[in-house]
Amino acid sequence: MPRPGKSSYSDQKPPYSYISLTAMAIQHSAEKMLPLSDIYKFIMERFPYYREHTQRWQNSLRHNLSFNDCFIKIPRRPDQPGKGSFWALHPDCGDMFENGSFLRRRKRFKVLRPEPPLPGGVPKGPAHPPHVVHYFHPQHPGKMQGLGTSEAAVAAAAAAAAGVGRLPQFQPYGLNGSSPSSGFKHPFAIENIIGRDYKGVIQASGLPLASVMHHLGYPVSSQLSNMVSSVWPHVGVMDSMASMPVSHEYGPFGVPMKALCHPPGQTMPAVPVPIKPTLALPPVSAIPALTVNPSQICPSTSPASSSLLEQTPSTPSEGKSALHSVLVHS
DNA sequence: TACTGTTTAAGGTATG
DNA sequence: CATACCTTAAACAGTA
């Protein structure tokens, strides 16, 4: 087994699973979601091992994307033509990796989906149905596209609001040794940033948070990344790779993220969206508010360009109500 | 047609 | 040793 950090195994197999590699790629992207081809590209650029036998590992990677609930599929918008969907990390898979390291997962991420009480008795889906999610048009919040029905989304929202469909074994773990059951939420957790009142709605809708916030006009890309990076340094390490020359070595990912990023004895989430199902939440008032300029609502395909300093004090209520209306009126 | 996505199956490895 | 996780292969369907 090659030792991470050594430069002598440049074309040997990295110690990361396909799930890890995919998560890296997705996390590294500004929008926290990537099309399949870009995931390939990311891996091949950084891990020379994967520049060969592409058929083999790309098939495996696709298998992982479909099979694992930690990956969610986001349909392209009409203004984003291209082949295939975007792939993102499920908001709840934050502590998927052991000790925040990409080297090994702590537990398989599995979403339990409640059977939506659809009239007419719809046959059950496959054993691990894909995470096909809906997107909606900010200009036409009543319209949702994607597979399935909007009724199902609403039903799922109701189910999730009732606490259904969450894995009991997916206990949160705190940053300061807080007990797993304490329900500690980092102040910069997205759900805390956007508020808990419709977090469940977002999750239940199947909409990935990055996508939801993006569509709502939240400056997901750089701002959240910046905020998150200040709290989870390893995310910053990953983001910093964007400007790093791609060597023929493993680069930052050749080093165990655990050793690289985490103080000894401290565990951190592996992804910047450490949202876990809990009942006890800190008061929203204790959360630094993420402000949004109303003029920036629904920036369609805005890339990661704005910064926190560019924001004017406001509330995300417009986007909030937009999402709400989607789920209510659809 | 190539790419993307889903699903099944089997075998290997790590962990408790 | 049982279980979970991971990898690989392959068949098949849908789509740009």
Distance between the termini: 52 Å
- The computed structural class is mainly alpha
In the CATH scheme, the class of the domain at 18-96 would be Mainly Alpha
Unreliable runs: 1-9, 115-330
Number of helices: 11
Q: Tell me the major beta sheet.
A: 3 strands, antiparallel
Averaged pLDDT, please? 50
Strand/helix succession: HEHHEEEEHHHHHHHH
Full CATH superfamily name of the domain at 18-96: Winged helix-like DNA-binding domain superfamily/Winged helix DNA-binding domain
Within the largest sheet, what's the order of strands?
1-3-2
Q: What fraction strand?
A: under 5%
Instruction: Give the overall form.
Output: globular
* Number of E-type strands: 5
Main location: nucleus
GO molecular function: DNA-binding transcription factor activity, RNA polymerase II-specific; RNA polymerase II cis-regulatory region sequence-specific DNA binding
Organism: Platysternon megacephalum
Biased composition (Polar residues): 301-318
Word description of this protein:
The chain has 330 residues and is mainly α. It has a domain at 18-96: Winged helix-like DNA-binding domain superfamily/Winged helix DNA-binding domain (Arc Repressor Mutant, subunit A, Orthogonal Bundle), CATH 1.10.10. 32% of the residues lie in helices and 5% in strands. It has helices at 18-28, 36-46, 54-67, 150-161, 190-194, 199-205, 209-216, 220-231, 233-240, 257-261, 317-329; strands at residues 33-35, 71-74, 86-89, 135-136, 144-145. The strands form 2 sheets. Strands 1-3-2 form a 3-stranded antiparallel sheet. A hairpin with a 7-residue loop joins β4 and β5. The longest helix has 14 residues, at 54-67. The radius of gyration is 19 Å and the shape is globular. The N and C termini lie far apart (52 Å). The model is unreliable at 1-9 and 115-330 (pLDDT under 50). It is found in: Nucleus. This is 60S ribosomal protein L22.
